[in-house]
From TrEMBL:
It comes from Zhouia amylolytica. SMART domains: TilS_C. This is tRNA(Ile)-lysidine synthase. Its EC number is 6.3.4.19. Belongs to the tRNA(Ile)-lysidine synthase family. InterPro entries: Lysidine-tRNA-synth_C (IPR012796), Rossmann-like_a/b/a_fold (IPR014729), TilS/TtcA_N (IPR011063), tRNA_Ile_lys_synt (IPR012094), tRNA_Ile_lys_synt_N (IPR012795). The keyword Metal-binding does not apply. Its main location: cytoplasm. The gene is tilS. HAMAP family: tRNA_Ile_lys_synt.
Length: 436
């Protein structure tokens, strides 16, 4: 197995040969064998062990085993003890997700502190099959059927082509000790149930099942590459990007065939994995919206708008004091006195300064707001102005107004109020420029 492993590294991960690597080691057979193999072929390695304190004395014995192994192999080892239960409850996570977050956050800090290039984990072919079956049982697209990625940023999984049987044979032949996790024998967990009951049955039906599975994963990954390439090209055509907003013409989406598959592939990166929700939105009334964990998708007339959900609370009221030249919150404005009017564009407003009452107010619009659009004698509700100018819901939400007292001076970057315009009687001109 050493020769096969070394060839696998040189052929597929040559960047590991001279890299500084960190092996995530639990003390179980897979991570212990990975450690021995990496040591055998001369990689520059250190070990990292997480004690999650979930199995009482067993957890402490695992930790001591890893320390002893590091001494035996003469490699550096890092140990961290976590209060996983407290983290789980405070962050409202499952035990598995809590442990994963703690583990990878710690690995990241170790990488930064000790200048480590790559983290190696000991996932192997049987783990890959279990993941495949779990995703299949829950329903998934091609992404979920391609298994565990061999490389994900700086995390590498070099044991994926090797089966649990191969690993056990190597450990037995070389008299390698490892720790058994008693929880792995509990069939109440889906992954364990698959490992203990389903996989043995599949291998019994077809002794070459694992080889065939690995070939299938290779084929699926190739197909995924083709699909991803096509979808990327389609996004380049359909997605119109402006700052953080993406707009897509609904007619273009309706004409896709098979529509549901395209909708899934186009929008799953934004967290919209239920294609029927997206399809229903295509035929809904304008203003209808759906949410994922990270994004909002809104129907705006003949298009869909996708915007990120911003977790940061932004105040909706700011003051601009006299003689203040620049503001950066909630938006960027340059303010200065000028002798005459210059460029005329939506992003710039020229105002009769003597009509202003300081401090000026920058705020979001509210129902009932009105102003006198430049060039008009009559007032107009902002809501009517937005409708006439065909503002989307997102555009309305993102619009700020500049006020002097209760009077609107400028719908920023859209329209000046006629009452504050520069006239032949104006003595002092204030220039405001909205910087995108």
């Amino acid at each position: 197995m050493v020769a096969l492993f070394e060839k696998h590294i040189k052929d597929n991960f040559p960047f590991l040969v001279k890299a500084k690597i960190l092996i995530a080691i639990s003390g179980g057979i897979d991570s212990v064998v990975l450690t021995y193999l990496c040591k055998e072929i001369g990689l520059n390695l250190s070990l990292a062990h997480c004690n999650f304190n979930l199995r009482g004395k067993e957890s402490d014995l695992d930790e001591q085993f890893v320390k002893d192994l590091a001494d035996k192999l003469d490699v550096p080892v890092y140990i961290e003890s976590f209060d996983t239960k407290a983290y789980k409850h405070s962050h409202k996570l499952s035990t598995q997700i809590a442990a994963r977050e703690l583990r990878y956050n710690w690995f990241k800090s170790l990488q930064e502190t000790f200048k480590i290039d790559y983290v190696l984990t000991a996932h192997q072919a049987d783990d890959n099959l279990e993941t495949f079956l779990i995703n299949l049982s829950r329903g998934t697209g091609i992404e979920g059927l391609t298994g565990i990625p061999e490389v994900n940023n700086n995390v590498v999984r070099p044991l994926l082509p090797f089966t649990r049987d191969q690993i056990k044979i190597y450990a037995t032949e070389n008299k390698i000790d490892w720790r058994e996790d008693s929880s792995n024998k509990e069939a109440k967990y889906l992954r364990n149930k698959l490992r203990l009951e389903v996989l043995p049955a599949l291998k019994e039906v077809n002794p070459t099942f694992m080889d065939n599975f690995n070939k299938t994963i290779d084929h699926l990954n190739g197909t995924r590459g083709i699909v991803n390439h096509h979808i990327a090209n389609l996004k380049a055509v359909l997605f119109k990007r402006e700052k953080e907003q993406i707009s897509i013409a609904i007619d273009e989406l309706i004409n896709l065939n098979p529509r549901k598959d395209y909708l899934y592939e186009l929008f799953n990166e934004f967290g919209f994995t239920a294609w029927d929700d997206v399809e229903n939105l295509l035929f809904a009334m304008s203003g209808k919206q759906i949410f994922s964990h990270s994004h909002r998708m809104l129907k705006n007339r003949k298009e869909l708008l996708i915007t990120p959900i911003n977790p940061i609370e932004i105040e909706d009221y700011y003051e601009l004091k006299e003689n203040e030249n620049t503001i950066v919150k909630p938006l960027k404005l340059d303010v200065c006195d000028v002798a005459q009017i210059g460029d005329l564009k939506n992003e710039i407003a020229y105002i009769d300064k003597d009509l202003l009452k300081y401090p000026l107010i920058i705020r979001k619009w509210k129902k009932g707001d009105y102003f006198y659009p430049l060039g008009m004698r009559n007032k107009k509700l902002l809501s009517k102005f937005f409708k006439d100018e065909k503002f989307s819901i997102v555009a309305k939400e993102n619009t700020w107004i500049l006020c002097s007292g209760d009077e609107i001076i400028w719908v920023i970057s859209h329209r000046l109020d006629d009452r504050f315009k520069v006239t032949p009687k104006t003595k002092h001109i204030l220039k405001l420029e909205y910087l995108t």
